[in-house]
Amino acid sequence: MQMNKLARLGLMLCCFFWQSCGDQEPGTNGDTGGDSDGDGDGDGGGDGDTGDYYPMAVGNYWVYEEESLSGDTATLRYEVTGKETVTLDHGVGDRELFVLHNTFPGETGEERTQYIEDDGVRAVRHRHLIYTEADGLTKQRDFVPGFLRFDRSKISVGDKWVEELVRYTDTKDDTPVTEQTVRYQYEVISLKTSVTVPLGTFECLELKRFEMTGSELKIYYFARNIGKVKEITGDKEERLVEYNVN
Hints:
mainly beta
């Protein structure tokens, strides 16, 4: 009799354990599918998602289709090609920076290299190099302090702040380096803007950046676990067509 009771108890425990393990739905923790937020739309942008809006890692890349109102199109590629220690001018010193390489189409064959510092909260650009096939390095820009790319501490609707920096420009043609103080105003407009690009529809953080010392307005759309999905500058739009994020 005692053995029969023990057997029944063991059977009940096995059934309970099996049901508990089987209750996990696809898309929750432990699922290896592509829908990281478990809402079935594949966008990885659900309310409970804690993925990064600005993922920086060596090997990550993003490809965008740029189109203007006039109908002109171009393909832009951004790739994190490495990480290195760079000695920066203007009293900044040595910094460990991601190397973000950009390729742009056109007759000039222009390429750009950005040096990004990411401390896990703020990602800022310290240096920007511009090259052409014909002339090599044609411009170097340094930013002190770094030029903000994304601030993970400011991701609530209504967050609004101003960043000021000095932009040093060396045109590599024996003319003096110029410096200009510039100010940018940032504002988080929404965390749930629906954005459709060639890859699909994503729920995005919408960020507005206005250059207060000029007149340029940019609107960015960032999706968790992906990064920038869309950018609007004047009459041009960049829309994500391909990416790889580690």
